[in-house]
Write a structure and sequence with these properties.
The model has no long low-confidence stretch (mean pLDDT about 80). This protein is mostly helical and about 100 residues long. Helix 1 runs parallel beside helix 4 and helix 3 packs antiparallel against helix 4. The protein contains four helices and no strands.
Amino acid sequence: MQKNQNAALAVFVGAVVFLALEVMVYYGLVTWLVPTDPEVEEQGGSIVRNWNKVMTFILVYMGVVVGALLLASSQVPRSYRRHVLFWFYLSLPTLLLLLVLAFS
């Protein structure tokens, strides 16, 4: 019974940390990348309007997520590393959602 309670607590703590990290990264990147100079917007000329911003968003996001994965997996006991990997794999489709929210 104790093991089930520990696993439930680990999932809850992981969810809270995951959501906090996602919100911080999203708002940090949106305030840093999304505002543009009106002159740059008028020039256009590229297939994807915000191509550089999208690529920077993806690279910085993945850097933060992989760094958090490495830090978390080195701090938690071995039995909870599968939870860390679950949150890492969940962050990959979340990236697509954040891109749509940020650049739409």
